[in-house]
Design goal:
Shape: globular
CATH superfamily: Kinesin motor domain
Largest sheet: 10 strands, mixed
Family: Belongs to the TRAFAC class myosin-kinesin ATPase superfamily. Kinesin family.
Binding site for ATP: 96-103
Number of domains: 1
Organism: Rissa tridactyla (Black-legged kittiwake)
Helix content: 25-40%
CATH class: Alpha Beta
GO molecular function: ATP binding; microtubule binding; microtubule motor activity
CATH topology: Kinesin
Radius of gyration: 21 Å
Number of helices: 12
Distance between the termini: 4 Å
Order of helices and strands: EHEEEEHHEHHEEEEEEHHEEEEHHHHEH
Domain Kinesin motor: 3-360
Length: 363
Amino acid sequence: PSVSQVALRIRPMSAAELAEGARPIAHLMDEQVVVLQDPMEDPDDILRASCSREKSYVFDVAFDSSATQETVYRATTQGLVAGVISGHNTTVFAYGPTGCGKTYTMLGTDGEPGIYARTLGELFQAIEDASGDTEYEVSMSYLEIYNEMIRDLLNPSLGCLQLREDAGGTVQVAGITEISAISAEEVSQRAPMGHGGDPANSPLPGAARLPQVLQALARGNMQRTQEPTAANRTSSRSHAVLQVTVRQRRRGRGLRRGRLFMIDLAGSERAAQTQNRGQRMKEGAHINRSLLALGNCIKALSHQASTKYINYRDSKLTRLLKDSLGGNSHTVMIAHISPASTAFKESRSTLAYAHRAKSIRTT
């Protein structure tokens, strides 16, 4: 069975939370256990002290606000790069309410790059270090799913795109822009090991192209549908999906393909938290529908499930991820919460959702 891992990251308290008198109620007990206290509980109530409403949740790995981007990357995603190169499918999700640090974890900042940059850097480096009898191609697409419609973030003028299933049963987005990050020609042209020119000093095609690729992603991210909500001034109202395809062709052998999805999900908060009305309310319904579909697929894939049927068709998100949730795949979910007492309900439902995802076992 393939690996699935669920991590939890607690972000620092925000200035706004501190200003409204919130106190921290989510704490890391050790590297795997997070404790959430109910802020409504009276610490001096002796009668109810025995049935404390403090609840602990165990994850594969948990991080508090002191964890660096590097620490989070190493503990969750670094080990998956080799699998993608050798033809496995891998999916990394950032899940949680708006404003809890999902985009920071995935995209990061110039000074503190996130999982996108670190994973691509490692992938390019691994391909450049690979043996000379293998040709690699790496291509990427970046899209958003907003109100159950698919938009190309690298070329938004293409309008709404459709999902198509090819003869092999792989779900593709028809007409999506694919940028080539490494072509077979670039890899085969590099200086071979031990034949004069030192490859360490020759231009590294992947490493050299990484800044351009990341600039394209940063531009794409600015095209995401954002709306101010009460939960966050620049709330992303869509799921952003970065798909990286690695094709590997060895002399005398067939073609292998590995797909890596890195997904910054839309905020999972309830409508009451965002004070949404009208269009925002409708968006929220679509967001919640696709997150529910994702949760249902995760539940059906979990070993406790009695059902053998997994309904990937409930949303565009789960349809697109069909191969990367079941089958020959590795799945990592990094859930995000705020430690603030004012975010208790959101944190509790996020912890419960992520905890349920822990039981996913694919074969």
